[in-house]
Automatic annotation (TrEMBL):
GO terms for cellular component: cytosol. CDD domains: TenA_C_BhTenA-like. Homotetramer. The lineage of its organism: Bacteria, Bacillati, Bacillota, Bacilli, Bacillales. This is Aminopyrimidine aminohydrolase.
Protein backbone atom coordinates (compact mmCIF):
# COMPACT_ATOMS: atom_id res chain seq x y z
CA UNK A 1 0.00 0.00 0.00
CA UNK A 2 1.48 3.41 -0.90
CA UNK A 3 2.32 5.44 2.20
CA UNK A 4 -0.16 8.18 1.17
CA UNK A 5 -2.96 5.61 1.25
CA UNK A 6 -1.98 4.47 4.74
CA UNK A 7 -2.02 8.00 6.18
CA UNK A 8 -5.20 8.98 4.34
CA UNK A 9 -6.89 5.95 5.93
CA UNK A 10 -5.71 6.74 9.42
CA UNK A 11 -6.80 10.38 9.04
CA UNK A 12 -10.23 9.37 7.72
CA UNK A 13 -12.28 10.13 10.88
CA UNK A 14 -10.73 13.62 11.04
CA UNK A 15 -11.32 14.28 7.34
CA UNK A 16 -14.91 13.04 7.60
CA UNK A 17 -15.52 15.47 10.48
CA UNK A 18 -14.19 18.31 8.30
CA UNK A 19 -16.39 17.32 5.34
CA UNK A 20 -19.42 17.24 7.62
CA UNK A 21 -18.59 20.46 9.44
CA UNK A 22 -21.40 23.06 9.16
CA UNK A 23 -18.96 25.62 7.72
CA UNK A 24 -18.03 23.33 4.83
CA UNK A 25 -21.61 22.15 4.31
CA UNK A 26 -22.77 25.77 4.50
CA UNK A 27 -20.48 26.71 1.59
CA UNK A 28 -21.79 23.79 -0.46
CA UNK A 29 -25.44 24.52 0.26
CA UNK A 30 -25.05 28.29 0.08
CA UNK A 31 -26.38 28.73 3.62
CA UNK A 32 -23.22 29.87 5.42
CA UNK A 33 -23.46 33.21 7.23
CA UNK A 34 -21.45 35.64 5.13
CA UNK A 35 -19.84 37.11 8.28
CA UNK A 36 -18.25 33.72 9.03
CA UNK A 37 -17.04 33.50 5.44
CA UNK A 38 -15.49 36.99 5.63
CA UNK A 39 -13.80 36.03 8.89
CA UNK A 40 -12.50 32.84 7.28
CA UNK A 41 -11.12 34.57 4.17
CA UNK A 42 -9.23 37.15 6.23
CA UNK A 43 -7.71 34.49 8.53
CA UNK A 44 -6.98 32.28 5.55
CA UNK A 45 -5.14 35.12 3.83
CA UNK A 46 -2.76 35.37 6.79
CA UNK A 47 -2.45 31.59 6.88
CA UNK A 48 -1.55 31.47 3.17
CA UNK A 49 1.26 33.98 3.65
CA UNK A 50 2.87 31.58 6.16
CA UNK A 51 2.07 28.55 4.00
CA UNK A 52 3.90 30.29 1.15
CA UNK A 53 6.97 30.71 3.35
CA UNK A 54 6.92 26.96 4.04
CA UNK A 55 6.76 26.26 0.29
CA UNK A 56 9.65 28.64 -0.26
CA UNK A 57 11.58 26.55 2.28
CA UNK A 58 10.59 23.45 0.33
CA UNK A 59 12.08 25.08 -2.78
CA UNK A 60 15.32 25.74 -0.93
CA UNK A 61 15.55 22.28 0.67
CA UNK A 62 14.59 20.35 -2.48
CA UNK A 63 17.15 17.65 -3.31
CA UNK A 64 16.79 17.99 -7.11
CA UNK A 65 15.65 20.44 -9.79
CA UNK A 66 12.35 18.68 -10.49
CA UNK A 67 11.30 18.97 -6.83
CA UNK A 68 12.58 22.53 -6.65
CA UNK A 69 10.55 23.53 -9.67
CA UNK A 70 7.41 21.76 -8.36
CA UNK A 71 7.59 23.72 -5.11
CA UNK A 72 8.26 26.98 -6.97
CA UNK A 73 5.20 26.37 -9.14
CA UNK A 74 2.97 25.59 -6.15
CA UNK A 75 4.33 28.70 -4.40
CA UNK A 76 3.47 30.83 -7.43
CA UNK A 77 -0.04 29.30 -7.59
CA UNK A 78 -0.63 30.14 -3.92
CA UNK A 79 0.65 33.71 -4.01
CA UNK A 80 -0.78 34.64 -7.39
CA UNK A 81 -3.81 32.47 -7.97
CA UNK A 82 -5.24 31.27 -4.67
CA UNK A 83 -4.59 34.55 -2.86
CA UNK A 84 -6.10 36.43 -5.82
CA UNK A 85 -9.33 34.63 -5.01
CA UNK A 86 -9.13 36.07 -1.49
CA UNK A 87 -8.28 39.54 -2.77
CA UNK A 88 -11.19 39.55 -5.20
CA UNK A 89 -13.64 38.21 -2.58
CA UNK A 90 -12.40 40.81 -0.11
CA UNK A 91 -13.03 43.60 -2.60
CA UNK A 92 -16.51 42.30 -3.30
CA UNK A 93 -17.30 41.87 0.39
CA UNK A 94 -16.09 45.33 1.36
CA UNK A 95 -12.78 44.41 3.01
CA UNK A 96 -9.98 46.72 1.88
CA UNK A 97 -6.54 45.35 0.91
CA UNK A 98 -5.05 47.10 3.96
CA UNK A 99 -7.61 45.53 6.27
CA UNK A 100 -6.96 42.12 4.77
CA UNK A 101 -3.22 42.39 5.30
CA UNK A 102 -3.65 43.87 8.77
CA UNK A 103 -5.77 40.93 9.98
CA UNK A 104 -4.54 39.70 13.36
CA UNK A 105 -4.07 35.91 13.16
CA UNK A 106 -6.37 34.18 15.64
CA UNK A 107 -5.23 31.39 17.99
CA UNK A 108 -5.84 28.53 15.55
CA UNK A 109 -4.33 30.36 12.57
CA UNK A 110 -1.21 31.15 14.57
CA UNK A 111 -0.90 27.66 16.07
CA UNK A 112 -1.43 25.93 12.72
CA UNK A 113 1.00 28.08 10.76
CA UNK A 114 3.62 27.97 13.54
CA UNK A 115 3.39 24.18 13.70
CA UNK A 116 3.87 23.84 9.93
CA UNK A 117 6.86 26.15 10.05
CA UNK A 118 8.37 24.27 13.01
CA UNK A 119 8.15 20.94 11.17
CA UNK A 120 9.57 22.50 8.00
CA UNK A 121 12.52 23.88 9.94
CA UNK A 122 13.56 20.45 11.11
CA UNK A 123 15.12 20.21 7.70
CA UNK A 124 13.69 17.10 6.11
CA UNK A 125 11.68 17.53 2.95
CA UNK A 126 9.50 14.52 3.88
CA UNK A 127 8.45 16.16 7.16
CA UNK A 128 7.74 19.40 5.34
CA UNK A 129 5.50 17.64 2.81
CA UNK A 130 3.72 15.62 5.52
CA UNK A 131 2.89 18.94 7.20
CA UNK A 132 1.50 20.72 4.13
CA UNK A 133 -0.18 17.79 2.40
CA UNK A 134 -3.54 17.77 4.27
CA UNK A 135 -3.92 21.38 3.25
CA UNK A 136 -3.60 20.87 -0.52
CA UNK A 137 -5.22 17.42 -0.61
CA UNK A 138 -8.21 17.99 1.68
CA UNK A 139 -9.33 21.19 -0.08
CA UNK A 140 -9.36 19.35 -3.38
CA UNK A 141 -11.44 16.52 -1.88
CA UNK A 142 -13.81 19.03 -0.30
CA UNK A 143 -14.00 21.05 -3.54
CA UNK A 144 -14.93 17.92 -5.52
CA UNK A 145 -17.53 16.83 -2.93
CA UNK A 146 -19.15 20.26 -2.77
CA UNK A 147 -19.17 20.60 -6.56
CA UNK A 148 -21.55 17.60 -6.66
CA UNK A 149 -24.20 19.50 -4.67
CA UNK A 150 -26.74 20.90 -7.18
CA UNK A 151 -26.18 24.62 -7.66
CA UNK A 152 -22.99 24.79 -5.55
CA UNK A 153 -20.64 25.81 -8.37
CA UNK A 154 -23.08 28.48 -9.56
CA UNK A 155 -23.91 29.97 -6.18
CA UNK A 156 -23.70 33.77 -6.28
CA UNK A 157 -21.50 34.03 -3.20
CA UNK A 158 -19.68 30.72 -2.80
CA UNK A 159 -19.69 29.29 -6.34
CA UNK A 160 -16.32 30.80 -7.24
CA UNK A 161 -14.72 29.33 -4.11
CA UNK A 162 -16.08 25.85 -4.91
CA UNK A 163 -14.95 26.05 -8.55
CA UNK A 164 -11.43 27.08 -7.61
CA UNK A 165 -10.84 24.26 -5.12
CA UNK A 166 -12.49 21.65 -7.35
CA UNK A 167 -10.28 22.67 -10.29
CA UNK A 168 -7.77 20.29 -11.89
CA UNK A 169 -5.03 22.82 -11.31
CA UNK A 170 -5.45 22.53 -7.53
CA UNK A 171 -5.81 18.79 -7.77
CA UNK A 172 -2.47 18.62 -9.57
CA UNK A 173 -0.62 20.29 -6.69
CA UNK A 174 -2.09 17.77 -4.26
CA UNK A 175 -1.25 14.79 -6.48
CA UNK A 176 2.29 16.04 -7.00
CA UNK A 177 2.84 16.29 -3.23
CA UNK A 178 1.34 12.81 -2.75
CA UNK A 179 3.72 11.35 -5.36
CA UNK A 180 6.70 13.08 -3.77
CA UNK A 181 5.83 11.84 -0.29
CA UNK A 182 5.34 8.28 -1.56
CA UNK A 183 8.77 8.42 -3.26
CA UNK A 184 10.41 9.77 -0.11
CA UNK A 185 8.70 7.20 2.12
CA UNK A 186 10.39 4.35 0.28
CA UNK A 187 13.36 3.14 2.25
CA UNK A 188 12.33 4.89 5.48
CA UNK A 189 12.19 2.93 8.74
CA UNK A 190 8.87 2.19 10.44
CA UNK A 191 9.73 4.72 13.16
CA UNK A 192 10.35 7.43 10.55
CA UNK A 193 7.07 6.61 8.80
CA UNK A 194 5.19 6.78 12.11
CA UNK A 195 6.64 10.23 12.66
CA UNK A 196 5.48 11.41 9.20
CA UNK A 197 2.04 9.97 9.89
CA UNK A 198 1.88 11.84 13.20
CA UNK A 199 2.63 15.15 11.44
CA UNK A 200 0.00 14.43 8.76
CA UNK A 201 -2.59 13.66 11.46
CA UNK A 202 -1.72 16.82 13.38
CA UNK A 203 -2.17 19.13 10.40
CA UNK A 204 -5.36 17.24 9.49
CA UNK A 205 -6.61 18.11 12.99
CA UNK A 206 -5.61 21.74 12.46
CA UNK A 207 -7.58 21.76 9.19
CA UNK A 208 -10.68 20.71 11.13
CA UNK A 209 -9.98 23.34 13.79
CA UNK A 210 -9.59 26.02 11.11
CA UNK A 211 -13.13 25.37 9.79
CA UNK A 212 -14.44 25.36 13.32
CA UNK A 213 -12.76 28.60 14.41
CA UNK A 214 -14.05 30.35 11.27
CA UNK A 215 -17.58 29.09 11.89
CA UNK A 216 -17.45 30.42 15.45
CA UNK A 217 -15.45 33.54 14.44
CA UNK A 218 -13.11 32.73 17.26
CA UNK A 219 -10.90 35.49 18.60
CA UNK A 220 -8.24 35.69 21.27
CA UNK A 221 -9.96 35.45 24.70
CA UNK A 222 -8.17 38.53 26.05
C1 LIG B 1 -6.42 26.51 6.22
C2 LIG B 1 -6.29 26.20 4.77
N1 LIG B 1 -5.98 24.96 4.40
C3 LIG B 1 -5.87 24.66 3.10
C4 LIG B 1 -6.05 25.61 2.12
C5 LIG B 1 -5.96 25.26 0.67
N2 LIG B 1 -4.67 25.44 0.09
C6 LIG B 1 -3.69 26.16 0.64
S1 LIG B 1 -2.25 26.10 -0.28
C7 LIG B 1 -2.93 25.04 -1.37
C8 LIG B 1 -2.13 24.45 -2.47
C9 LIG B 1 -1.87 25.29 -3.58
O1 LIG B 1 -1.62 26.57 -3.39
C10 LIG B 1 -4.25 24.82 -1.08
C11 LIG B 1 -5.16 23.98 -1.91
C12 LIG B 1 -6.34 26.91 2.55
N3 LIG B 1 -6.54 27.91 1.67
N4 LIG B 1 -6.47 27.17 3.87
Amino acid sequence: MPFSERIRKSADPIWKASHEHPFVQGIGHGTLDIESFKFFMAQDYKYLIEYSRVMAMGTALAPDLETMSGFAEALDDTLNMEMDLHRSYAERLGISREELEATVPGPVTLAYSSYMMAEAQKGSIAELIAAILPCAWSYYEIGLELAKIPGATEHEQYGEWVRMYASDEFGEIGYWLIRKLDELAEGKTEAELDRLEEIFLNTSRYEYMFWDMAYKREKWPV
